[in-house]
Design brief:
binds oxa(dethia)-CoA; 324 residues; Peroxisomal Thiolase, Chain A, domain 1; five-stranded mixed beta sheet; 2 domains; alpha/beta; four-stranded mixed beta sheet
């Protein structure tokens, strides 16, 4: 039917940044953060935990589960907005770490929707090239792109990576269909500059450096509506009833966004995997981290229908159905 996931892996940095730690850094409180976001802790990279290193560790765990070795990998795709270099891509660093000599490698930038957009790319690649094996990774060190003096953003973000190994199988499982969107007109509600330009004629005005800037309330409102629309369209197009969904795997941004989405859709809360309380918002890494946790906890059974959805900067958003 489509590209199937043969193995999952994740890697979370050791260091924990709690709400109480943040109380000492900005004017906030554990109570405010918990009630407005559902987040208690997030993990922050230390030495040896660059984006590509987290990505590589997650990839190794996924390859081990899939019993696939690095020299069998044909393509490495990393969804990220926080690689330590703009060029080469994070995926090329991962390729080098793994010594995955025959693979070609590139990054996807779709912010928090990066993994979902990458999943669609990989599914289409594998349908065209059955027999190939792909490593798809979402990895972020958003701590390197967060202004820890801005209480609107610094309470939200965390670091981590998740990975999957994929292959085309002529079986009734795998990626079923995707419904993806972008709206570049809304870029200025959630964005991040790069390094200052070397060419003064094309310097961005008011470039404060490469950290995340966000109009949280606007993002919140748009995210709920957009994801609901993408999900409803997809289910209708695929003639799937919400009751047939075994587990919803949403991007982990804020528990209130998830609760609103869940109540608007009318899906049973028990069917929604949530770990935002532990890791905060890890952008492109959140969905593959959830996938790995759900998989290792035994919550994914053969033939389960997974509903994956995301929303992020761009704006970018969408929904995908995966038959496990
Ligand atoms: O992955 C996709 C990208 N991002 C998101 O999905 C984030 C979406 N947005 C959100 O999660 C929420 O909008 C936030 C958690 C960022 C903010 O929650 P909110 O309920 O929308 O709060 P708000 O921005 O409307 O601010 C309410 C009040 C303001 O004070 P005033 O103007 O009412 O006096 C803020 O200044 O809360 C204040 N505030 C804080 N207070 C304590 C903002 N941040 C904090 C803070 N601690 N950390």
């Amino acid at each position: 039917m489509g590209a199937v996931i043969l193995g999952t892996g994740s890697c979370i940095p050791e260091r924990v940044l709690s709400n109480h730690d943040l109380e000492k850094m900005v004017e906030t409180s554990d109570e405010w953060i918990l009630s407005r976001t559902g987040i208690s802790t997030r993990h922050i990279s230390g030495k040896g935990e660059q984006t590509y290193q987290l990505a590589t560790n997650a990839a190794r765990r996924a390859m081990e589960m899939a019993a696939v070795s690095a020299d069998e990998i044909d393509l490495i795709v990393v969804a990220t907005i926080s690689s330590h270099m703009l060029m080469p891509s994070c995926a090329c660093f991962v390729q080098n770490e793994l010594a995955a000599k025959k693979a070609f490698a590139y990054d996807v930038n779709a912010a928090c929707s990066g993994f979902l957009f990458g999943l669609d790319n990989v599914d289409k690649y594998l349908r065209a090239e059955p027999g190939k094996k792909v490593l798809l990774i979402g990895a972020e060190t958003l701590s390197s792109r967060t202004n820890y003096q801005d209480r609107n953003t610094c309470i939200l973000f965390g670091d981590g990576a998740g990975a999957v190994v994929m292959e085309y199988r002529n079986e009734d499982r795998g990626v079923v269909a995707s419904n993806l969107f972008s709206d570049g007109a809304l870029w200025n509600l959630l964005y991040m500059h790069t390094a200052p330009s070397c060419n003064p004629d094309i310097e961005q005005p008011d470039n404060p450096g490469a950290h995340i800037l966000m109009e949280g309330r606007e993002v919140f409102k748009y995210a709920v509506k957009a994801m609901e629309g993408a999900i409803r369209d997809l289910l209708e197009r695929e003639q799937v009833d919400l009751g047939e969904v075994s587990l919803m795997i949403p991007h982990q941004a804020n528990i209130r966004i998830l609760n609103k989405l869940v109540s608007r859709l009318g899906i049973n809360k028990e069917k929604v995997f949530v770990n935002v309380q532990k890791y905060g918002n890890t952008s492109a890494a959140s969905i593959p981290i959830v996938l790995d946790e759900a998989n290792r906890e035994g919550r994914l059974k053969p033939n389960d229908l997974l509903l994956v959805c995301s929303f992020g900067g761009g704006f970018t958003w969408g929904a995908t159905l995966v038959k496990w």
